[in-house]
Design a protein that fits this description.
mainly beta; 2,3-Dihydroxybiphenyl 1,2-Dioxygenase, domain 1; four-stranded mixed beta sheet; 2 helices; globular; antibiotic resistance; Bleomycin-R; VOC_core
Length: 136
């Protein structure tokens, strides 16, 4: 079995933890002395780290906001409207407004209800709820 678990460098782990808790992530385990936390939410896992130094896996280039340019991470959920409402109430700006979208594939189309938001360090997250499939 293979799994992809992103590890996101953050500038303030407490601010990042507060944001990801709004998304429904729970701490699976953490090492506070290393400013590290492993989070999970219904099969979606990610790691957060606020580096203590610039050794080991720290990027070679300077980190400038927004972090993670060129990628967006999709988190599949079953409560997209609730999460959207929670983030708006907390003052987060939506990068992509809440929408219903159908993406064509070879023989069918898959539907999602989704929005995108940036975390405190600018990582772009697409929060997506599966709506089903339909013929193309």
């Amino acid at each position: 079995m293979s799994r992809l678990v992103p590890e996101l460098i953050c500038s303030n782990i407490q601010a990042s933890l507060a944001f990801y808790r709004l998304l429904g992530f729970k701490i699976r385990y953490e090492r506070p002395q290393e400013r590290f936390a492993y989070l999970e939410r219904g099969g979606a896992d990610l790691m957060l780290e606020q580096p203590l130094s610039r050794d080991r896996l720290y990027p070679r280039a300077e980190l400038d906001y927004p972090y993670g340019r060129g990628i967006n991470l999709t988190v599949e959920v079953d409560d997209v409207d609730q999460i959207h409402t929670t983030l708006l109430a907390a003052g987060y700006e939506m990068w992509l407004p809440l929408e219903e979208r159908w993406y064509e594939r070879t023989v069918d189309a898959v539907g999602v209800r989704q929005f995108a938001v940036q975390d405190p360090d600018g990582y772009l997250l697409r929060i997506s709820q599966h709506l089903g499939t339909r013929p193309r």
